[in-house]
Amino acid sequence: MMPVGKPLSKEIIQQIRKEIFHGKTKYRVAKEMGINESVVRSHTRNLPSLKRGEPYIKGKAVDLLKQLL
């Protein structure tokens, strides 16, 4: 369990983002790492998420993809 009120280290944030990027749900990552799901969401807002089993992209990632296309 992560200490309450302490900022997360860069390494922990990178681990969270890696787990989400590889397909784990934000809920599952939060539960496995012992942190609040809202903390996970706040550090992964710009990553693709799963919705009804299908990946989708939102936010800055969409803008970047539009530029690339």
In short:
With 69 residues, the protein is mainly alpha-helical. Helix content is 52%, strand content 9%. The chain has one domain (10-68).
Folded structure, characterized:
With 69 residues, the protein is mostly helical. The protein has one domain (10-68). The protein is built from 4 helices and 2 strands, in the order αααββα. It has a two-stranded antiparallel sheet. Helix 2 (26-33) packs across helix 3 (37-43). It starts with 9 loop residues before the first helix and ends with a helix.
**Overall pLDDT metric:** 81
How are the strands of the biggest sheet laid out side by side?
Answer: 1-2
Helix content: 40-55%
Separation of termini? Answer: 42 Å
Low-confidence segments: none
- Compressed to H and E, one letter per element, the order equals HHHEEH
Our Rg estimate from Cα atoms comes to 13 Å
Biggest β-sheet, characterized? 2 strands, antiparallel
Overall spatial form: elongated
> What count of structural domains?
1
Q: Into which percentage range does the β-strand content fall? A: 5-15%
The tally of beta strands, per DSSP, is 2
Structural class: mainly alpha
Secondary structure tally, helices: 4
Sequence-ordered SSE layout with sheet pairings:
Blueprint: H1 10-21, H2 26-33, H3 37-43, E1 49-51, E2 54-56, H4 60-68
Antiparallel strand pairs: 1-2
Helix pairs in contact: 2-3
